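Subgroup meeting minutes
Present: P.N., E.W., G.H.
Scribe: E.W.

1. P.N. recapped why we're keeping a running log of single-chain structure predictions: easier to compare across weeks, and new members can see raw inputs and outputs side by side.
2. G.H. added today's entry (147 aa).
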Amino acid sequence: MSYRRDDLPRMNDINRASLLSLAEQGAVRLMLSSTVERVSDSNGKPMVHYAGGEEHQYDYVVYALGGSTPENFLKAIGIEFDGPNPRLLDGHETSVPGLFLVGDLSAGNKGGSIIWAFNSANTAMKKICKDHLGCSVPERGGKGAVQ
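Output recorded in log:
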């Protein structure tokens, strides 16, 4: 987890303690005071380039960008726009195959909410699971699964 600050002031106490514990156990790599300069393709996997020259290849990347759409950044990584909003396909997938926007980033002009964030993430995860990971996700109440 890359974070530009040297601490986690906006995270609630329970989540902060859990994350720090996972980092101590080696289950999470916590990179405080780090800045992602860009992400590139490396044989079909994301290569993250950090300020200072460090780079790491990952299986997946999740961006948590804040409450307003960072239009210039999204355009720079190849996401197409319809007017002021990112163009989203089925399941909140962007014009970059395998790259999804959820929460406020997918809400458009209507604005986001915590319910929108949960629901858009749920929709995206079902699509990711079905189309990219070959797994299934149970429907609400445990009835059936996305195949």
